[in-house]
């Protein structure tokens, strides 16, 4: 089942902050975050793993609440280059405890940053 | 180091025609994936592979077949194209428990 992202769209001025949320109905092994600009491929931002490990860009932070199967992406001091569509991808826990990166993506959050 | 490449970039097919999309990666990744993305929607997983010679179904596998004869290549085939398969197709690869690297995409139109 597809994770639910909120909000669907955000409009910011440069320097403002934003939070994008991702909620799943399944127990999760990991949550991935990607940004996609129009006509381009998705680009990796952050991965949050069950147990607390995180990997990603220094200027972007995120949280993962394993009990609630929720993740949030925090964009601070936004820049024009942050504009794009943000997707979370959820990787459910399987019985064997391994992950094959079978991501189910949310519908996306469109972020627009104005000067 | 090219990362993930896809061939072709654009293609127009008539209903019933067949074609193969090629994905290649030079990062020695174990896992490879094929997604489709329709306007205004997120990516949906078609098929994936966890190693050379192995493939598995994703969320929307019907109408597609895949093969991974070499570790660096992952092929997606459409045996009899339908207008509903008009989409942008992305290939991705990853190591274990790591981020996915996406190719530039193939824009397919089925008339």
SSE blueprint and pairings:
The complex is a heterodimer of chains A (about 120) and B (about 110).
Chain A (H helix, E strand, L loop, with lengths): L3 E3 L2 E5 L4 E6 L4 E9 L6 E7 L4 E3 L4 E5 L4 E6 L8 E9 L11 E2 L3 E6 L1
Chain B lengths: L3 E4 L2 E4 L5 E7 L5 E7 L5 E9 L2 E4 L6 E4 L5 E6 L8 E8 L6 E2 L3 E5 L1
Parallel strand pairs in B: 2-11
Antiparallel strand pairs in B: 1-3, 3-8, 4-5, 4-9, 5-6, 7-8, 9-10, 9-11
Could you characterize the architecture of this molecule?
The complex is a heterodimer of chains A (115) and B (111). By secondary structure, chain A is mainly beta. Helices cover 0% and strands 53% of the residues of chain A. In chain A, the strands form two sheets. In chain A, strands 2, 4, 5, 6, 9, 10 and 11 form a seven-stranded mixed β-sheet that branches. In chain A, strand 4 (28-36) and strand 5 (43-49) form a beta hairpin. Chain B is mainly beta. Chain B has no helices and eleven strands. Chain B has strands at 4-7, 10-13, 19-25, 31-37, 43-51, 54-57, 64-67, 73-78, 87-94, 101-102, 106-110. In chain B, strands 2, 4, 5, 6, 9, 10 and 11 form a seven-stranded mixed β-sheet that branches. In chain B, strands 1-3-8-7 form a four-stranded antiparallel β-sheet, with no helix packed on it. Chain B is globular, with a radius of gyration of 13 Å. Chain B starts with a strand and ends with a strand. Classes of the chains: A mainly beta (115), B mainly beta (111).
Multimeric state: heterodimer
What is the alpha-carbon Rg of chain A in Å?
14 Å
Order of helices and strands of chain B: EEEEEEEEEEE
Please outline the major beta sheet of chain A.
Answer: 7 strands, mixed
- As a percent range, the share of helical residues of chain A equals under 10%
Cα Rg of chain B: 13 Å
Low-confidence stretches of chain B: none
The general outline of chain A is elongated
Report the mean per-residue pLDDT of chain B as an integer: 95
What gross morphology of chain B would you assign? Answer: globular
Can you count the helices of chain A?
Answer: 0
Distance between the termini of chain A: 37 Å
Question: What is the typical, i.e. mean, pLDDT of chain A?
Answer: 90
Q: Could you give the count of β-strands of chain B?
A: 11
């Amino acid at each position: 089942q597809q994770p639910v992202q909120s909000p669907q769209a955000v409009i910011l001025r440069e320097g403002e902050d934003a939070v994008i949320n991702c909620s799943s109905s399944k127990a999760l092994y990991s949550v991935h975050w990607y940004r996609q600009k129009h006509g381009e491929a998705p680009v990796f931002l952050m991965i949050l793993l069950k147990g607390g490990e995180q990997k990603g860009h220094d200027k972007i932070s995120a949280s993962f609440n394993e009990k609630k199967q929720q993740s949030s992406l925090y964009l601070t001091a936004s820049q024009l280059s942050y504009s794009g569509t943000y997707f979370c991808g959820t990787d459910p826990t399987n019985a064997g405890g391994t992950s094959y990166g079978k991501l189910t993506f949310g519908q996306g959050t469109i972020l627009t940053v104005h000067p | 180091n090219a990362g993930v490449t896809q061939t072709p970039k654009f293609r127009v097919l008539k209903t019933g025609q067949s074609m193969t999309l090629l994905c290649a990666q030079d990062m020695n990744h174990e896992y490879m994936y094929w997604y489709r993305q329709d306007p205004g929607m997120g990516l949906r997983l078609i098929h994936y592979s966890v190693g050379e010679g192995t493939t598995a179904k994703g969320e929307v596998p019907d109408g597609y077949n895949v093969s991974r004869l070499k570790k660096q290549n992952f092929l997606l085939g459409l045996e009899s194209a339908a207008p509903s398969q008009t989409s942008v197709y992305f290939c991705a690869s990853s190591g274990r428990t790591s981020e996915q690297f996406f190719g530039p995409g193939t824009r397919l139109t089925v008339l």
